[in-house]
Design goal:
Layout lengths: L1 H9 L2 E8 L7 H13 L6 E5 L7 H4 L8 E3 L2 E3 L1 E4 L2 E5 L15 H14 L5 E7 L6 H10 L6 E6 L3 H16 L4 E6 L4 E2 L6 E2 L8 H9 L3 E4 L4 H9 L3 H4 L4 H27 L1
Parallel strand pairs: 1-7, 1-8, 2-6, 2-7, 8-9, 9-12
Antiparallel strand pairs: 3-4, 5-6, 10-11
Helix pairs in contact: 1-4, 2-10, 4-5
Length: 278
């Protein structure tokens, strides 16, 4: 009955993409926010961003929606909209203050994730992007279990170049394989910094073991691309603006656009394969 409820609610969602990271602080929520903005730049597409980072919900701030409230109607909870074609849902909208700590055990977190999937009236959606907390614990198992009632196109894994981050990404890849979650690919974030004055590139996080690209070759996983550091990304996120719109000529924006295009191509191909099987 539960699976049927979830299927009924999510049947109008065409593609579902999970954004994962082994470590905190690698830019996963930033990537989720910019992936949503990038997809929604095509006004013909309807995009939804679901933040299941229950203890550290940063999506409301990054999307310029701090202080917004969730409204309930006969058809369920209504997402908070950034644009007409970009809706957001987060536990951040349910807190009385952005400084409130969410001190919950696993079952309560799982219950809220189920509620987000079952009770939010997403409507017709081309892409549902799910921003997850770091690691491979309760929230990840819950979202994979609940979404298995419908379908998941796959996961995008975000890392930084240094070995201490890649070590945890290998665990994340192993997790995906164990729970049969397809891996769309890996994104290397904060990959080099080009000085705006002298144009020299510095490796802030040196890839001592060859970085994400080498790891992907070794583990037979797609490498989606590198996103260089740009101080403007942090500023845009703090203001709740889209970096892609504010800095269209930045090398980081060009990297994002290429990565987003590759994710779209993967999802379309995955959709065609599923249709053939059915």
């Amino acid at each position: 009955a539960e699976a049927a409820e979830l299927r009924a609610r999510l049947r109008a969602v065409r593609h579902t993409v999970l954004v994962l990271s082994g470590k905190g602080g690698v830019g996963k929520s930033t990537f989720s926010a910019l992936l949503a903005h990038g997809l929604a730049a095509d006004e013909t597409k309807q995009v939804a961003l679901l933040d299941i980072d229950i203890c550290g919900p940063s999506i409301p701030k990054m999307m310029g929606l701090e202080g917004e409230q969730v409204h309930q109607s006969g058809s369920g909870w209504s997402p908070v909209y950034v644009e007409e074609n970009l809706g957001v849902m987060s536990v951040g909208f349910l807190l009385s203050s952005p400084d409130d700590a969410v001190i919950w055990r696993g079952p309560k977190k799982n219950g809220l994730i189920k509620q987000f999937l079952r009770d939010v009236d997403w409507g017709e959606v081309d892409y549902l992007i799910v921003d997850t907390p770091p690691g491979t614990s309760d929230e990840h198992l819950s979202i994979v279990q609940y979404l298995s009632a419908t379908h998941i196109d796959g996961a995008v894994i975000v890392t930084t170049p240094q070995e201490v981050s890649l070590q945890d990404v290998r665990k994340e890849i192993n997790f995906c394989r164990k729970v049969k979650l397809p891996i769309i690919g890996v994104v290397e974030n904060m990959s080099g910094f080009v000085c705006p004055k002298c144009k020299n590139e510095s490796q802030i996080f040196p890839p001592t073991t060859g970085g994400a690209e080498k790891m992907c070759q070794n583990l037979n996983v797609s490498f989606l691309g590198k996103v260089p550091l740009d101080p403007q990304i942090g500023k845009s996120c703090d203001r709740g603006q889209s970096f892609l719109a504010e800095a269209p000529e930045s090398p980081a924006t060009l990297s994002y656009r290429n990565i987003i295009q590759r994710i779209e191509e993967y999802c379309e191909q995955h959709h065609l394969q599923e249709e053939k099987i059915m």
